[in-house]
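Structural biology now treats backbone shape like a language. To illustrate, our science desk offers a sequence and the tokens encoding its fold:
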Amino acid sequence: MQNEELSLVINTDQTQKTLMDFIRSELTRAGFSRAVVGISGGVDSALTCFLSAEALGPENVLAIFMPYETTGADSHEHAALVIEATGAREQTVDITPMVTPLFERFPKADKIRRGNVMARMRMTVLYDQSAAFNGLVIGTGNKTEILLGYTTLYGDNACAINPLGDLYKTQILQLSRAVGVPEPIISKPPSADLWNGQTDEDELGFTYDEVDRLLLFLIDQGRSAQACIDAGFDEKFVQNVIERIRRNQFKRVLPPIARLGNQT
């Protein structure tokens, strides 16, 4: 489908400056000068680490790699590439001995539950080390994941600030190339690496390129479902994406509070 209104191309120079300014100003506003970033070997966390190191100075960024026993060798290699390229401080924390007792307690837990446990354990490590390092946890989630709810509540979506949250996945790739993220990290299939062979696009059932174009139409341009279908998007695909956005709204807001009075 071709449409001149649909453009995911960004001004990478301006975007980089804006996000670096955001990181510096938000940390300063909160009274901090240091950042903690969880790196996975994937492109989103790599980009966050690059931006944070450039904005704050690499000595003020702690990058923590948190593998599980099934974490692929390429994730280890790519995390090391990020550390080498950015010069950030580095720490590796193996979460295997932390999550294994829970897995043993609930042996019938499926891979989704186990993946969520790992994501939440990683965030526990990040927040503990943020206290030790006296820095704020910087988020790595992109706009595509946030809208689709493709994230673990109180896991990988937990952070103090998120510089990437208004960038679609395809825009993450553009900016990553511009700031110098190593190409092997950018070009590999996106994966949360929560179990062997897992990839984002296989799990979602569509590609980031496809869904980003639809989301740009739906969200940024405010078009109706029918307008998207008329523009050439498959009807089932449109309805699937809209339903995912609706169903995962609770992940994008603070927990509702029951109001007992006007001053609550």
Notes: DSSP finds twelve helices and four strands in the chain.
